[in-house]
Amino acid sequence: MTPPAVPPPVSDNGRGATQVTLRPVAPPEEVPEGVRPQRLLTVVKAKAIQQVKATPTDKVNTWPHLMIAEFSALMVITAVLIVLSVILQAPLLELANFNATPNPSKAPWYFLGLQELLSYYDPQVAGVIIPTITGLLGFMAIPYVDRNPSTKPSDRKFAIMLFTLFLAGSATLTLLGTLFRGPGFNFTYPWADGIWFDDLKDWVHFE
């Protein structure tokens, strides 16, 4: 094998010459037949087995997405209440007279469901037994009866059914006591003696 040629000295503008000697190059090794040579391009860092970072979910910001929707609903409800307060007059009645009981004597709307039950059952049953079993024991037993940990409504059909039955029953009793009970707390129709808004009955004429 012939040694490599030595290049001529490089001039250094009168400050001397430097001679560069090349290192001998080793002859390439022969690759065995059937073996493909590989080159290492990069080192890939292995990922962790457990995902530490939480996966992104569908989220919206409180401002402006949520606040705009809630503020819009607040403005609509406020406007409806203002219109109703202007149209329907609800003046205060005279001072209460314990010698003269108004007819009918109705409880506030949130107690009219119980008052409606009192017209069907004994006070002990309507005022103590049914509220205790339904309102206390029934609701306390729901987490033990329906033990489904899912929070999706499609997976909680039993719990939704129980709450729907309670809500429908409570709403029905309240509506009956509010609209369908006239003097003496007797059953009547809303367009006769059930609705106690004189302004509304003046506007809506029923045949």
**Mean of residue pLDDT?**
77
Write out the strand line-up for the largest beta sheet, numbering strands in chain order.
Answer: 1-2
Structural class: mainly alpha
The profile of the biggest β sheet is:
2 strands, antiparallel
State the share of residues found in helices, binned by percent: 40-55%
Query: How far is the first residue's CA from the last residue's CA?
Result: 125 Å
Number of helices, counting only DSSP H or I runs of 4 residues or more? 6
Principal-axes geometry comes out as elongated
% residues in beta strands: under 5%
Secondary-structure element sequence? EEHHHHHH
Radius of gyration: 44 Å
Gist of the model:
With 207 residues, this protein is mostly helical. The protein is 43% helix and 2% strand. The chain has helices at 62-87, 112-118, 123-145, 157-179, 190-194, 198-203; strands at 10-11, 17-18.
Provide a descriptive summary of the structure in words.
Among the domains are: about 60-90; about 105-205, no CATH class. The longest helix has 26 residues, at about 60-85. The protein contains six helices and two strands. With about 210 residues, the chain is an all-alpha fold. Helices cover about 45% and strands about 0% of the residues. The termini are far apart. Strands 1-2 form a two-stranded antiparallel ribbon. Helix 2 (about 110-120) crosses helix 3 (about 125-145) and helix 2 (about 110-120) packs across helix 4 (about 155-180).
